[in-house]
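LAB NOTEBOOK - FOLDING QUEUE
OPERATOR: T.R.
BATCH SIZE: 2
PURPOSE: Compare the predicted structure-token outputs for two unrelated chains run back to back under identical settings.
PRIORITY: normal
REVIEWER: second-year student, initials M.K.

ITEM 1
FIELD SEQUENCE / FIELD STRUCTURE:
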Amino acid sequence: MGKVKNFFGGVRQEVRQVTWPTGKELRKYTVTVFGVVILFAIFFFVVDFAITSLLDVFI
């Protein structure tokens, strides 16, 4: 049981050392992630549409 208590004590110390983002930074990162996801979705939609169209021509 002492090892478990020691482990969680170490976890607590590590979490205290973390530099957490501010609310403004968090919003900025969230918008960036959503923007990149939307761009990738559009890219893969266009690629999928192009490949499907090419296959329809040849088949």
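ITEM 2
FIELD SEQUENCE / FIELD STRUCTURE:
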Amino acid sequence: MLWTPLLWLLACGGEENPTSDGSDGTPGSSDTTDASAATGTADSSTAQPSTTTTTTTTTGEPGITTTSPTSSGDGSSSGGTTGGRTCEGELPAHWIDGVDCGDEPQVQVHAYDPDTWILRQSLCTSFEGPFMMLLFGSERALLLDTGDGGIPIADVVHGLVEDWSQAHGGAQIELIVANTHAHGDHTAGNDAFVGHANTTIVGVGEAAVREFFGIADWPDEIVPYDLGGRVLDIVPLPGHEKAHIAVFDRATGVVFTGDTLYPGRLYIADFPAYVASIGRLVDHLAGHEVCRVLGAHIEMTNTPGEDFEFMQPSHPNEHPLELDLTHLLELRDAVEAMAEPMIEVHDDFIVYPL
């Protein structure tokens, strides 16, 4: 089972966004739009590695389910400490998992806290089932990733922005659309935001990411980005993909790691860069209290070390989304100890060099 995705990736050459060289139609820059509002796959190489209780309500929009934070009883966290800090935000007891496509919405929208929303695309619309994060500050909101396409992502996000604005006096707030990295299952919905008022779309390549966030020394420089009373640390994280970033939210203590670390197969295109990136992230977090580590997919079952079949359209008995700082340390130690890149199965993730 482990070799199935590797063979597929090598045969297909991956699905890197064609603009991942630093352009998005406007090389090295971000797009700002002010018109009226409307409405993946890992890189591959030829090197062969060695192998050693949620409250749910339906919104007025079709195909969208909103969940509110409540206590959970199946392993999903609802407060607690996971890596040195009490987690004030809550996660649902159950994410949509593709088991019942007749009733499952296209997008699950979960309120982690009043200023943080987590969205999941249904596996019924994409076997990737990616997660997207929406973080609000007093001046702007940041959307991390837009999914794998075929879902009303712009309608969902702009609805949340409007609701948040109304709850905070009705002032307009700018939406920043950015991506953890350039692969299509995270960027396919970007174009849906073109032409929307008060919306800036960050380019998906390294040059565009560097310019927007003001990173002069890529990948060694870590920069703050202020949403207005909510400062995020933008951490360059190449290895899975060359323009990959992680985001550490100082307000919540959550680290958003995209495809670099999540409960699943951690595809690594550039192993030395990946090792350096994990070390850089760990070193940076040493000066902060970490609550949770949230990636962009779930590919592991609740059985330790067991993943789902590649491209499996449903995930019964799915691993929780959240990991913590101990997993990040475990990953760092594992890749640093490898004399050469190799597939290595851990309880909650699989190191998977390409």
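REVIEWER COMMENT (ITEM 2): The first strand starts at residue 31 and ends at 33.
FOLLOW-UP: none requested
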